[in-house]
Every structure is written in structure tokens, then in C-alpha cells.
Amino acid sequence: MIDISRSTALALILATGGAIAAPGAAGAMTAAEIDRNTTAALKMLYASQPAARLLAGKAKAVLVFPRMVKAGFMFGGQIGEGAMRKGDLLRGGRTTGYYSSVAASYGFQAGIQEFAYAMFFMNDAALAALENAAGFEVGVGPSVVLLDQGRAKSITSTTLKEDVYAFVFGQKGLMAGMGVQGSKITKIEK
After folding, report:
1. What is the pLDDT of residues 11-67, one digit of tens each?
2. In whole angstroms, how far apart are CA 108 and each of 11, 15, 21, 133?
């Protein structure tokens, strides 16, 4: 993973065509827009993934990035903003903070894609690692398990042992590879 700032990731996305395919690139949303998009993303996730509803009933918090933009041609980047929700997560919870997520990559890649992702924080230690860090890097610190449709079907209330579970959903566009590993998440003011 390349260490990258938010402005560098946005520059990479713009340089690779993200501005054409995604007007109003991630990063320009107001708090109200992030909240509205987060609520819609959670509804879509819960409707399509029964395991997400199970996690919501057990999690301490969920961090939702309702609109991530990933673009690349050899060099790539992804960027987006989201909201942390706590409380009754099955009913959407309440927003307790806003975050940005950025990542960069290098290698054989071309295309642009938009997607959403949600991270369910299952314990206080994992949540503290995010809330007390200047920047939380996925893959460093608490264990994060990325759930696909097949793996999500095997989740039960007795098998929940990991710190954080993540879902990537709502993909649009064409881009090889998808993940959140190496993403740097930082709290932002809105």
C-alpha cells in the first residue's frame, strides 16, 4: 500500500478520468447529503444481505461509505466520505461523526467504478482503534473480514468472532479488483 493523502488520491482519480464519470466527486458532499446517502445505503445493504442485519443487531457501530469512486490506469486511487452510526443500527442509528476513506494502488488496472462499503465494528477495542487514531488503516490493527455473498451466508450469531466485518456493495462501472484493504480512514469535520 502506498501512503497517500486525501488530495493526492483525488488528483489520481481526476487524472484517470474520474471527474468525467463521477461529477461532484466524493469529497464534495455536505453532512446532510452524507446522512441521506448513508441511510439509503444501509437500507439497500440490509435488503440484499441478511447477514448485514444480523451484524447490525450485534455491532457497536457501523461506518458507511455510501459513494466511493475508484479509478485507475496503471496508477489508481479511490476516495469517498461516509458516516459513523451508533445506537439502533437496524433502524439506521444516529450519526456520531464523518470520515473519509482514501487508497492508492499501482499495477495492471484500468477503469472506473463506484461502490459503497460498510464496516461493522463488533467490539469496543476495534471502535476505539478507529476513534482514537489520527488515521485508521484497514489491514493494520483490528482484524477486518470482508464478506461476500457466499461467506456472509455462513455467519451466525455464534460465529461472530472478528473485530470488524465489511461489505462492499452497489458496484457500478468496470474495474478489475475490489477491496478495502489498505484504505486509510480519517475523521473529518462537516
Report:
1. 544 444 443 344 344 447 899 999 999 999 999 999 998 889 999 999 999 999 999
2. 19, 16, 20, 32
- By the 10 Å C-beta count (0-12 exposed, 13-18 middle, 19+ buried), 141 is classed as middle
CA distance 121 to 19: 32
Please name which of 90, 88, 38, 91 lies closest in space to residue 64, comparing C-alpha atoms.
Answer: 38
The domain locations on the chain are 6-188
CB within 8 Å of 179: residues ≥ 6 apart: 146, 168
Environment class of residue 134 by beta-carbon count within 10 Å: exposed (0-12), middle (13-18) or buried (19+)?
exposed
Q: What is the pTM of this model?
A: 0.77
Cα dihedral 159, 149, 147, 25 in deg (nearest 10): -150
